[in-house]
């Protein structure tokens, strides 16, 4: 062993004088030749401790110090410990020991009898600062004890010092590779290279960019993706080593211990440039000096405080750049340096002969990391679960699956070190291996059952609601793979429900499944977790697994409600909520799974549940007292009806908040229910004092009459009723359909102009609003009222309008739909090479308007062309019509007071307003009913023959004649339209034309004498009849 620094003269009492060899250099370095080799050591400010190869411990304490500050006397003491010691760490004056059994003991200079520290067991690492200590257990828990004056225990703000170990709860679930401590600060390093620091930060030793102490672990974000593999701490400085051999330092630079040729403090990790290319393999920190070992060169570099010779350079002075320690060449040629140590004002290098290289440290003494699950363990469980080893296996399963740290550190993607890239957008997991692992566990039912039991009973309740790092969220990606195999066996409902509750318990600020699970669940709260995180980056297969887990649970609840008298409303709210959040995550993914994956197909059963059926049965079984003397019937029936309504209202509220689970038809059902609710609430208004307040209009002055009456209208909570002047039609829906159909044509030609028709045939808000007062507001009001009245207002708006109403971002694809030529020019700018783009001589302008400040002077280049296109689209679809759309949107909200329309997708909302143009003409005949006729009558056969021969345009005219519009609202498509053909009953049938009752979709058809007469009369009716008679 090489030793240099304080007390080099007596070798700490480890050997007699003949075993202490003064190196033949100017470095003041000793070669200590012990009979029993030193396997491990640690040094503090006033104590140095050694572990010999047989596990025995001895430690040296500084016994005396002269007034001039020179420390001269050290006394070596043997330690009486019944357990073999594997590792130790020194503080300022105390030593913490770790035994082979995983127990922890503490030594002080006053005694050589180690005392147990609390009830710690299964400890795998220990570390000491000056006055505090840290322990890491096999299952990933971190415990601290000692002084907490600067927050070095990491227990949170205001926590006192303590002599008994306390758990650092904020590190719960984080798979750790190393713990370490300096003077009054501490660090933890994860398996994937994330670094957390806490405690004193007066010199920037936490690397957080400031000098504010941290009472709890804080992530050192600037070390992310650096592949950190080791950390060492001095009293006020910190050194970090990466897998690539780079060294970063930060904190106090007072003595040059940061190695930057400067005495300046560094508040953030800074690369030690002088060690660039050297590929450092080990680092160690003394109190104010640093060692860096380059294994390939057999060189140890030192820098920092050197007053006591701790730099090994022969000159007892400080050094601010790394220089080699002057190791004795006559010894180093025959030895391999196994490990370097530093502490206090001491430096050491443990060596072995070249033949025994790699054996200087027993494998058991190499720092152990949090345990993880691997294929070898699973194979052993599967093979031995039926033997006498089952009890031991059960214990191992409990230890493994009760620990979030263990699972979060398992199944890492180690190909090309990908797990070191862990971030909000990359989980660092190889989920394929996780899937295979759980599939293998499923081969033995008793093993899988035990895993399920431990996860359900212990792991899920223990998960932190406030994890501090992405690695702590991996468990939320792994557990769905367990749920997947359990649900396949029809036995995962209870644990899936528990998992849902656990996810919903997460702090929404941490649950960034958009920016974090965007590692998980798309911010699992309405503020959306940084939910662009891990779930958003899963492959299709694994993301679909997560979705299906919650989907299956929702379907199971619905099934139970259909066959049992139970109300799973609260549980469904949780599962629907998670599906909605995952749906939002999906919308952020580059490759999205289809939206129908989220649809729960048994939604209709909510309105026909066992509870509803039983209540209806109770209602029919009530006996009505004909005498009227007993009010029991009315009281009980009212109670039952109230229960039914309350249940349906709750279901409606549940569904409208989670539209992702609904297909379009289900959304329409919820939409209709919302309309009925509004209608019931305002029934007295609609049928009472406002019953005669229909909108009365003249066909010749339709638009002006409409605008005039809308301006006077104050209540928009009732459906619009329309009355055409001099016509007898009563509006039961059909008159309104025609009213809005006619308005759609007139709005396109109105003055002042509000809409402009583009080359695509689509209408967009005009940018020239000269002369316009409230017309944009009225346009929006009419569109909203059309939607509220469930009528069609076919203005052929582009999808962009509906995206804007829903608060979604418009893109170049939206401009392509509206103005294909304009958009193709922009696409050309994006696609062409640099020479072509520059030759176009474009600047950031559009029709005299600057797209950005000084846009007239800013040329479009390869670098900024994407920004140019984005700004152009934004100008065209947003900024140029900003005030016009604001008025339109205000009117739309007034016209349609039911905000339930927000649950529709833009495409669905567009179809609701503009109607369905999917004409399934054959369905019209299939669904037709007859009154006064039979399907086999000649007149009916002739009618369908004539209708079949109609052109597409003539069929649309017939549809307008029958219903009032040629585009039917969503939910009233031809596949659902039930036309009734009834006989007029006239004796002179050939003298009459067909009539239509639009509200009831009834065709009154005379019994014509021939097919030719029928064709003539029907064509005349659908071509020339624009006035409602029987509506």
UniProtKB/TrEMBL annotation:
RCC repeat feature ranges: 102-139, 140-192, 193-244, 245-296, 298-353
InterPro entries per the UniProt record, alphabetical: HECT_dom, Hect_E3_ubiquitin_ligase, RCC1-like_dom, RCC1/BLIP-II, Reg_chr_condens, Ub-ligase/GTPase-reg
SMART domains: HECTc
Keywords from the named record: Repeat, Transferase, Ubl conjugation pathway
Domain HECT: 710-1031
Chain ranges passing through the membrane: none
Keyword field contains S-adenosyl-L-methionine: no
Gene Ontology annotations for the cellular component aspect, listed alphabetically: cytoplasm
Annotated active site: 999
GO molecular function, one term: ubiquitin protein ligase activity
PANTHER family: E3 UBIQUITIN-PROTEIN LIGASE HERC4-LIKE ISOFORM X1-RELATED, UBIQUITIN-PROTEIN LIGASE E3A-RELATED
Protein name, per record: Probable E3 ubiquitin-protein ligase HERC3
Protein species of origin: Salvelinus namaycush (Lake trout)
Lineage summary: Eukaryota, Metazoa, Chordata, Craniata, Vertebrata
